[in-house]
Design brief:
The chain is 90% helix and 0% strand. It is mainly alpha-helical and 88 residues long.
Length: 88
């Protein structure tokens, strides 16, 4: 059987101080880990945003190209019709 031991105020204060230091260390480590996670997520999201931006620019360029092709086809058609009218 273990006998009861009285803790002196000095021992109590020392153990309390050690416990506070451990909690402080844990708090700093947890904060650092959270910062690392947020940074990693931010980098990942930034890459996704950049990829989406590139895709939007690509689609915009493709749309411009299609509009020009349509416009050239339309103008060619109008020119042919005008030519037929003037010859006929």
């Amino acid at each position: 059987m273990m006998k009861s031991r009285v803790v002196t105020p000095e021992e109590f204060e020392e153990q309390l101080s050690q416990l506070r230091e451990k909690f402080s260390l844990l708090e700093r480590r947890l904060s650092l880990k959270a910062d690392e996670i947020v940074f990693t997520m931010t980098v990942s999201h930034r890459k996704e945003v950049d990829d989406l931006k590139d895709e939007v620019f690509s689609l915009r360029d493709e749309l411009k190209k299609m509009k020009k092709e349509r416009q050239h086809a339309y103008l060619g058609k109008v020119a042919q019709q005008a030519k037929r009218r003037s010859v006929g």
